[in-house]
From TrEMBL:
<keyword id="KW-0547">Nucleotide-binding</keyword>
<dbReference type="InterPro" id="IPR027417">
    <property type="entry name" value="P-loop_NTPase"/>
</dbReference>
<dbReference type="GO" id="GO:0008053">
    <property type="term" value="P:mitochondrial fusion"/>
</dbReference>
<keyword id="KW-0809">Transit peptide</keyword>
<keyword id="KW-0812">Transmembrane</keyword>
<keyword id="KW-0378">Hydrolase</keyword>
<keyword id="KW-1015">Disulfide bond</keyword>
<feature type="domain" description="Dynamin-type G">
    <location>
        <begin position="262"/>
        <end position="539"/>
    </location>
</feature>
<dbReference type="Pfam" id="PF00350">
    <property type="entry name" value="Dynamin_N"/>
</dbReference>
<feature type="coiled-coil region">
    <location>
        <begin position="875"/>
        <end position="934"/>
    </location>
</feature>
<dbReference type="GO" id="GO:0005525">
    <property type="term" value="F:GTP binding"/>
</dbReference>
<feature type="coiled-coil region">
    <location>
        <begin position="177"/>
        <end position="229"/>
    </location>
</feature>
<dbReference type="GO" id="GO:0005743">
    <property type="term" value="C:mitochondrial inner membrane"/>
</dbReference>
<keyword id="KW-1133">Transmembrane helix</keyword>
<feature type="region of interest" description="Disordered">
    <location>
        <begin position="38"/>
        <end position="63"/>
    </location>
</feature>
<keyword id="KW-0342">GTP-binding</keyword>
<dbReference type="Pfam" id="PF19434">
    <property type="entry name" value="OPA1_C"/>
</dbReference>
Amino acid sequence: MLRVTKHIAQRDATKRVTYLCHKIVVSSNSNYSTLNHRFGGGSYHRQQQHGSNGQGSGGQHFRSDFLAPHGPKAWTIPPNRGYGMVVVRILRGALKLRYLLLGGAIGGGMTLNKKYEDWKDGLPDLKWLEEALPQGEKWSQFSKTLMEIGGAVKDVIEIAKDDIKSKTTVAALSLSQDESRKKYDNLQSQVETLQTEIMNVQIKYQKELEKMEKENRELRQQFLILKQNKKTSTKKIKKSLIDMYSEVLDELSGYDTSYSMADHLPRVVVVGDQSSGKTSVLESIAKARIFPRGSGEMMTRAPVKVTLAEGPYHVAQFRDSDREYDLTKESDLSELRREVEFRMRASVRGGKTVSNEVISMTVKGPGLQRMVLVDLPGIISTMTVDMASDTKDSIHQMTKHYMSNPNAIILCIQDGSVDAERSNVTDLVMQCDPLGRRTIFVLTKVDLAEELADPDRIRKILSGKLFPMKALGYYAVVTGRGRKDDSIDAIRQYEEDFFKNSKLFHRRRGVIMPHQVTSRNLSLAVSDRFWKMVRETIEQQADAFKATRFNLETEWKNNFPRLRESGRDELFDKAKGEILDEVVTLSQISAKKWEEALNDSLWDKLSNYVFENIYLPAAQSGSQNSFNTMVDIKLRQWAEQALPAKSVEAGWETLQKEFIALMEKAKKSPDHDNIFDNLKAAVVDESIRRHTWEDKAIDMLRVIQLNTLEDRFVHDKSEWDQAVKFLETSVKAKLAQTEETLNEMFGPGQFTRLTHWKSLTEDQNKRRHVKTELDKILRNDDKHIPTLSYDELTTVRKNLQRENIEVDTDYIRQTWFPVYRRHFLKQALHRASDCRKAYYLYSQQGAECDINCNDVVLFWRIQQVIRVTANALRQQVINREARRLDKEIKEVLDEFSEDEEKKSHLLTGKRVTLAEELIKVRQIQEKLEEFINSLNQEK
């Protein structure tokens, strides 16, 4: 109160001084006029004669003439007028000071006005602000109100401070205690009123700013539309600064999972306990509800990197997708949340609960602050039964991994509705950033905290006096009312209303600074700190990668001097080109070569069936008629059932064999690079496994084969000779197989035993005795039937018993089968030789020919079937199957190209890994330099 009294006294004194000065000036003007009339000889008249155009000019002439008059007669002041001279001199000094001040003010004002006009001319056209801001008297009134409020606040604060200091002097001023208390309450009420007015002004300012941003956005959209309609530009769209920085981070994350955290670039790491409101804070900063929610369930299972950028439309997009989600539409928001949840669950493999796989997305929109945030799974203290046993440790390690980056900004989220002592995240943050140089503390759910906690406790938290951890700043936010369907606009309005009416602002000891509240102020602070750290660290990161690149290039030159650095993608493309070239070469194989290969493959596939199921049973039937009848029946059954499918198998095996042969031939080329061998083999194997012959080919082959088998007559000598040759070749091949079976059964001959020091086994010795008895039967009956009679079996047993060899009938039959087959095949060769020159008789007598050549006709029919089948298969291969195989190979190659794990498995070696690392470092360095250039230009 003493201060108030002093202030009032000082103000009264100032008024008195001002009044006296005014009187002096008025008096001086009056005396000046009097003296001018009294002593106005020549100077006054000269002033009138010269036509003085201003008071200042006349005054100047007056002073000159008064002090030193011109002319031959200079006048003097009478003695009795000495006091007048004193007064005149005093007035002269006062008037001189007055005019100097007035002239300086006028000159300075003109100079200031000129500079202001020049500065105003350099400004852009801001007429559009006239509609958004108050004008004229409204603006003057608004400015005056703000100035009055500011002055009043200053006076009140000064008064309040002086009042506290001068409590001891209240008694000296004879003021009663009741009066002091009343004035104290009145001052406190004024402080609360002014605090509320300040909040209202700030909210009004923010709303006006948002309104201006919206209008600016609409004008920008209209401008872009007009510009596009005027001229369609094919110029590449320039990436924003934050997009470029996000790409650098993505490249860096994919460089090496074990890469030193000390070399990582800045990003904002959002950490906190589970259900503390981390995701809600991030959504409030992004102005969209982009993350899935669950009631009490862990939803964030993997790191989510969100790049925020300003843009004309509020959209979101994943890094590996071209689709944009319109965040103003609830349908797109729902799809985005489902996709985020799907990606999170897909990233968790092997029974894990959380994953280190980063999900990258970009959110653009008007008014968003540019920054990169990483949302991490919430820290838990207790695990549920459906979680993996290492979930808690995995989350701790992941959180430490991201926070240990010395360039990371830690956004520490603390739930204000729970006891501070239950927090797990603060200890973890304090371990990674003990000095708090890169930590920003955020208290969420303040609306609940206000109801549950003491306001003084919240004040301590936000002033950094409750937790032992330190931070750059402390902020309080409200992230919703617990309603899942609330929009971000509704949440932000609720937040503003809460802080406007909160008792945290109305209790004198619980006052929180306005810049410490609301998500908007938080996002501004985080963005400002983010870009500051980016500018401080980006140069040294670029230098580090430049040195790494130099070391890798030196190592490459020393190990692979003649090769270019080719990564897995480039090597894969090269291998893909070689494989497709070989597929093209497959179509260039001649028709003759295809038919020869198909003929050989068909007979290899069909020969065993022909001998075992058709030729041998028919030839051992006993007569020519029964032979032909059985052959017709068996051939038709074969053509209707197994033959078409077996033919397709032979065709597919031939196609596969020829393709592999081309691949093997390519390996012998001098330009062959064996680094592709594993990849080529895997592609061919997978393509062959997938390939199936067209089903309609079997039906087509069945018709052709049945029609061919209907022809039973050999038409000319050349065909007859070819059939005889085919028969002899086939029988000899079968006889060779039979001889091998007999050698295994009876052991080597005597010469082989002597030269190779081999001996017979007991079984081989026994079978040799059985063979001797069986040879006797065949010598006695050259046309013996394929089976042994009971009497013959008994005779063989008794003969062996005389030699003390005991065998059963099954043992004798097993030995008889290959022995009789060799005997039959040798007879078939003799018949083929006899039939070689019997075509004339056959052509004349047909089936009634004296020489039995039915087996030649059978093999001619089989030969014809194989020939027409090979021709049909050749056409299918060239016209259809080779192209289908080409298509399947391309599909396999496309699938492999998208599978990085498979490419890493198939393309291995130091050459690949070193090239991959070098290419990656170059990409990161180039993106860093591009980002630095853009960052410098923005400065």
